[in-house]
Write a structure and sequence with these properties.
The structure is a homodimer of 179-residue chains.
Chain A lengths: L2 E9 L3 E3 L9 H4 L7 H6 L3 E5 H8 L10 E4 L1 H5 L9 E4 L3 H10 L4 E4 L2 H9 L3 E9 L1 E2 L4 E2 L8 E2 L1 E7 L5 E6 L5
Parallel strand pairs in A: 1-6, 1-7, 3-4, 3-6, 4-5
Antiparallel strand pairs in A: 2-9, 7-12, 11-12
Chain lengths: 179, 179
């Protein structure tokens, strides 16, 4: 049975990026000596599912950060896959359910689901097992929200919370049954 | 020197009420035996500042919950104060800064600032000293947001976080200089 897992940072007002996608406000927290558990989280995943925006942002960096397989959800890129895509990256225009079913057949058990729009669609389809949300002590006032519309109230279970000297507060929530 | 203080619960997706103002999702947490510190917080305040919406919602209840003075910010109600207003309630169409200055002259030192719109305007004017935010483990998908637009990025300082068996996670943030 495959399950989706989220590890993401948000501002205190719930944004994962500024309106233009800028992550500058995260910078003070990514360079410190604190271990927020990201490496351990990723090491426990069979691969990553992300959207085109995340993919293209990562490609602008010099180093591709993943040595696990990465699935990029994009109608456009699935029709015209970039020739310079890193090894282990593939592109699909499938639905969240179809993608997860395919990955399960391929032997995946735990998928790292990343990016606001992608997380929202996987949540709506009941494909997220748990979320580790790291709250950054800043109010941005505007931006790209982590969460979006739902067709129902979704109760989650608090598993644990820890805070860091930097002011980050990290909570883990179990979402319940995955598809 | 007077300062504004916030004590409020939000859903995991940042809403303080459903779109119609309903607080049903808070009910499971308000009746338990957990002490979330609200009584102690209010006991430490000289009074409350709220908007018309909060006032009218409270008036629909049988018992007026406050024995401290309450300032209701409402242009409409300040022109036509309700004759049945509880003792110790007054109405004003003043600005946040003017209200706080007036209350300071009146001897207030700590004001409980309540309600989404009111909190947002006091934050914009630098009138909030700290916020105790209690995160409820539920995604509503829509509602009235706690936070709103700001004209700048506002860094806050994490003071402490505690979690409760019910799944509530309560963090206290210092906002910095008040006006």
């Amino acid at each position: 049975m495959i399950s989706g897992h989220v590890f993401i940072a948000t501002s205190l007002d719930g944004y994962i990026a500024r309106p233009d996608g800028d992550l500058d406000w995260l910078q003070p927290y990514s360079e410190g000596e604190e271990d927020h558990g990201y490496e351990a989280f990723v090491a426990n995943m069979d691969g990553v599912i992300m959207g085109r925006g995340s993919y293209e942002k990562l490609r602008q960096m010099n180093l591709w950060p993943y040595d696990v397989p990465v699935v990029v959800m994009s109608r456009q890129l699935s029709k015209h896959p970039p020739e310079d895509a890193p090894d282990g990256v593939w592109f699909t225009d499938g639905s969240p359910r179809a993608i997860m079913a395919g990955l399960e057949r391929g032997g995946w058990r735990r998928a790292y689901v990343d990016g606001g729009q992608i997380i929202q669609s996987f949540l709506r389809d009941g494909l997220i097992a748990d979320m580790i949300i790291t709250r950054v002590p800043v109010l941005l006032g505007a931006g790209r929200p982590l969460f979006g519309a739902l067709d129902r109230t979704l109760r989650v279970s608090h598993v644990e919370t820890r805070s860091f000297p930097s002011g980050l507060v990290q909570s883990r929530y179990a979402v319940g049954q995955t598809a």
